[in-house]
Structures are given as C-alpha cells and as structure tokens.
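User: Teach me something about this protein's shape.
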Amino acid sequence: MIQKLKGLGYEPVQCRNSTISRYRFVFASLDGDVLDFAVVDVMFDYCRQGLTLASGAAMVQGRGRRGSYWAADPAAEFTYLLSEAILDRNITETREQRLRIWRENWARPGWWAWRDDCAVRNGTHR
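Assistant: First, the predicted structure itself:
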C-alpha cells in the first residue's frame, strides 16, 4: 500500500498513534496547485473507550479479497458498525445503510461479494 502511494507521488507527512492499538499514516501529493491527501489506518485491535471490542485476529478472520482490496467478513463488519453506532450514540446515514443491507441479506449465500461490489460502486466501502 505504502509503495503504491509513493508510486502515485504521495509522500509521508504524518504518523500518529491515534489510540492504544491504532496508527494513522497521512500522505500528501502536490500536483500543480492541488494538494491531495491519503490516509492509511493500521489497527492491531478494535478498542473504544478503554474496551477491546475485537482482537486483530478476529477482525481479519474470514475476510476475503474483493478486486484490489480486502473486505471484512460480514459478521465482523456488522459487529463493528453496530458497536460504533452504540458507542457514538449516533448512527450515520452510511452506517445505517450498511446495517440495513447486512440485515436484509445476511442469510443469502454469496451475498457479501454482491455487497462489496455495491459498496465500491457507491463509495460506502469505508
């Protein structure tokens, strides 16, 4: 990932430890008068408010390759989205849409490949 960013003209400008088990790397690229940023988050565990909600192993277990990126297992994604909504006491429109898609399709065989294709097309795969 980092080599790909460097190949696209991005240079590292910041590395910060944003939580106990998470690092955020910020890259910048200047193209004429346009300054563009790319952010890469690296998480070892999913921690919020002093609680470890999922280990790093649990977050990557069951993930699958979807084109040029790795997609989380649907159950792991559902747990993450629901945990974020509960802890934030707020649910964004994007999270609500992803939870609704998960709820409506979880039992359909092969649905998560379809889900990821749709997410990439409409920009909600984050």
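Now, about its shape. DSSP finds five helices and seven strands in the chain. The chain has a mean pLDDT of 77. If you'd like, I can walk through any region in more detail.
User: That's plenty for now, thanks!
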